[in-house]
Amino acid sequence: MKEALSQDRREELQRIARVDVTVSAPALVQARTRLGTAALTRLVRLEIGELRRQVLGGGEAGTLDALVEAVKRRVGAVLATRARRVINATGVVLHTNLGRAPLSEQVAAEMAASCAGYLSIEIDLSTGRRGPRGAFAETALAQLSSADDALVVNNNAAAVLLVLTALAKGRGVIVSRGELVEIGGSFRVPDVLARSGAKMIEVGTTNRTTLEDYSRVFDDPNHDVAVILRVHQGNFRQVGFVERPPLPKLAALAHERGVLLVKDLGGGALLDMTSWGLPGEPTPELCVKAGADVVCFSGDKVLGGPQAGILVGASEWIDRARRDPLARALRLGRLPLVALESVLDAYLRQDYAAVPALEALRRPPEEVRQRAEKWAEQLQARGLAATVVELPAAVGAGALAEVSLPSFAVQLQVHNAENFAAALRTAEPPVLARIRDDALLFDGRSVLDGEDAPLIEAIVAAQVATSEA
Ligand SMILES: *Cc1c(COP(=O)(O)O)cnc(C)c1O
Predict the structure, then answer these.
(1) For 264-291, what is each residue's pLDDT tens digit?
(2) How far is the CA of 161 from the centre of ligand 1 (A)?
(3) What is the per-residue pLDDT across 27-85, written as a single tens digit (0 to 9) for each?
(4) What global pTM score does this model have?
(5) Range name among 215-224, 234-243, 376-385 with the lowest pLDDT average
(6) Ligand 1 atom 1: the closest Cα is on which residue?
(7) Index of the ligand 1 atom closest to the CA of residue 96
(8) Spans of all domains in the chain
(9) pLDDT for 393-431, tens place per residue?
(10) How far is the CA of 113 from the centre of ligand 1 (A)?
């Protein structure tokens, strides 16, 4: 039975401001322009509903000003969920939570120019006939990895799922127990294998798998092997008593037995980065030359492009993947495709300066130090306690796990690091930094060219905001 409302509660409920009065409060003019009246009204209703529940529970109606402030907080929370440009001062160059590889101004301009209208994405302009989607990207990728053919899909997880489905559905896939790994974001090799419809045949142990472990599978007539899968150990490292057969030996075994060798490479550096002091991550080209029939890798890891999954290899197998119905479901959107083509164009011209991720990765430590020193001077001039510290930065995105890049950061001693970091996240533009002990660290490696001045202004603004609080 519903209890009758006491006179006192009824009066208190009537003290709550009306929806229309709140929506048209002068303090919400900006929110109204930004969100539109309908969306703002919805948030006001939610807040008033909450307030009514509190009043019924014995609380007070409060003032219109307090209500307006609460609505403003809701508006801020809604707007903060929207993906927007931020400054990455974390030192992790390919930060999965920050969209991985940053794209250049030139790529962004080409995207704007192409995507603001219609696009000749599936029309061959020389003949006027229907043409294959992504043809330029695929030709470029085949060339850059010395492969016969290439295919682009939504991301590398999709590439692996597609290749296993197209080449091994209902049949066996041999994989080392040392490679039954989780890449992150719930991409687990055994789960992807299961979803492809292939049957996983585990061999070896966590730390050691020999060529004989693989070859013994073929002695068992119960196994109908289609593929040997090799997964790159990109986001972790095994040391000590470990063994895996080299890729050329494994590929030779596969071909001797009439099955395919598929390599999930993960990151896919299109060039050898050892000359930049970065360790020799195997390139797709090296994997193809070592005998892999299909190599899968990401567009937005060390390649430095947009989110994409890339398959390169022999035409027969790539084409089988292309014709699989799953390929249509996993295809790349037109925005990332335009971006990918623009980035690959830069690779073909060997214009690596046009790939910001590569620029950040290969920036010499001395240059990073000078940059951090300049920031420290500018911050000191504004009255902030900034010093320069040496520390390791990271490649990120599960790529080159064993590598930490020498780097330098500005260390800022603050009263409350969590509060300061929160103020930085709501600065214009938002800044993401690392916290260590009671200090904030702004790494000179991952901040892009042209972001120095906005970074300094955001730090100063955060200082002002947190000292007022
Ligand atoms: C990163 C990675 C993936 C997943 O690639 P996404 O592009 O993030 O989908 C799969 N396999 C390996 C080995 C990876 O490193």
Answers:
(1) 999 889 988 887 777 767 899 999 999 9
(2) 11
(3) 999 999 999 999 999 999 999 999 999 999 999 999 999 999 999 999 999 988 899 99
(4) 0.91
(5) 234-243
(6) 266
(7) 8
(8) 7-80, 87-97+362-468, 135-330
(9) 888 766 665 577 899 999 999 999 999 999 999 898 999
(10) 30
CA 307 to ligand 1: nearest atom: 7
Ligand 1 pocket mutation, candidates 187, 400, 403, criterion most atoms within 8 A of CB: 187
432-453 mean pLDDT? 96
Q: Of all atoms in ligand 1, which is nearest to the CA of residue 231?
A: 13
Q: What is the CATH number of domain 87-97+362-468?
A: 3.90.1150.180
Question: 135-330 maps to which CATH number?
Answer: 3.40.640.10
Residue entry with tokens 């990271």: 394
Question: What's the 192 CA to ligand 1 centre distance in angstroms?
Answer: 12
